[in-house]
């Protein structure tokens, strides 16, 4: 990396930071248990992931992936329908893989956190009470028993890299765990409902679209406070608040 002319800040907040230095991504995380999960999950996943170059806590060095992200929340995706379908197919491969040995969040944990976030959103006047109530009701459909699968846990489109119609890799595995398959599909299509049919076609299995929409509401309700407190703007066009406004 001797000829590198700049360092790019990919994401940075008080919990973690990711820098790009040439063809290397440096991830620095205050919580090494998240890095432990990330490295372990990448070794277990049956889909392409970045190569681990080295790890010297608190830093993890990963090789850059070929291609570009499938898209960004709040921006139109230029990826082809075939690329979106390939992302769905990659999710199916992951969900069919053996479970990781560590559990994910329980239904009770998710429901309790959802209640707390909804109370905060209304009490602090962040969002109108009727908007929160309506989406809280929609979110109920996600709070049902599911058969655990190997989930990425944060399968947003910025974490899926494509080259043409091919998936070249999936990044940011620190939230991987046993979980609900439909949560991954909802994360992948959040704010991009127009590509949901492509993802489902690539996934190749019957999915409950109402549950995916429920996860859109639930994920957005849970995200607003964290985003605000970490310097991000969930009120940007096409982002979490717009997702909540677009709900039923």
UniProtKB/TrEMBL annotation:
InterPro entries in the record: AGP_Transferase, Aminoglycoside_PTrfase, Kinase-like_dom_sf
Domain Aminoglycoside phosphotransferase: 42-205
One Pfam family in the UniProt entry: APH
UniProt-recorded name of the protein: Phosphotransferase
Protein source organism: Micromonospora parastrephiae
Taxonomic placement: Bacteria, Bacillati, Actinomycetota, Actinomycetes, Micromonosporales
């Amino acid at each position: 990396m001797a000829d590198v002319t700049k360092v790019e800040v990919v994401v940075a907040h008080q919990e973690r930071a990711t820098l790009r230095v040439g063809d290397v991504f440096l991830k620095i995380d205050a919580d090494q248990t998240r890095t432990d999960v990330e490295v372990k999950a990448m070794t277990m996943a049956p889909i392409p992931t970045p190569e681990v170059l080295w790890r010297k806590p608190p830093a993890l060095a990963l090789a850059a992936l070929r291609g570009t992200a499938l898209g960004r929340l709040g921006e139109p995706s230029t990826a082809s329908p075939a690329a979106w379908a390939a992302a769905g197919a990659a999710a199916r491969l992951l969900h069919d893989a053996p479970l990781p040995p560590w559990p994910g969040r329980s239904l009770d944990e998710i429901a309790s956190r959802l209640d707390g976030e909804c109370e905060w959103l209304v009490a602090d006047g962040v969002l109108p009470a009727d908007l929160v109530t309506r989406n809280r009701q929609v979110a109920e459909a996600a709070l049902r028993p599911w058969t655990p699968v190997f989930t990425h846990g944060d399968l947003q489109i910025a974490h899926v890299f494509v080259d043409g119609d091919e998936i070249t890799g999936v990044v940011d595995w620190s939230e991987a765990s046993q979980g609900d398959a439909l949560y991954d599909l909802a994360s992948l299509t959040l704010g991009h409902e127009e590509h949901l049919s492509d993802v489902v076609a690539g996934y190749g299995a019957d999915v409950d679209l109402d549950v995916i929409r429920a996860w859109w509401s639930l994920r957005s309700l849970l995200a607003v406070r964290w985003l605000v407190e970490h310097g991000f703007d969930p009120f940007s066009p096409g982002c979490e608040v717009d997702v909540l406004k677009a709900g039923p």
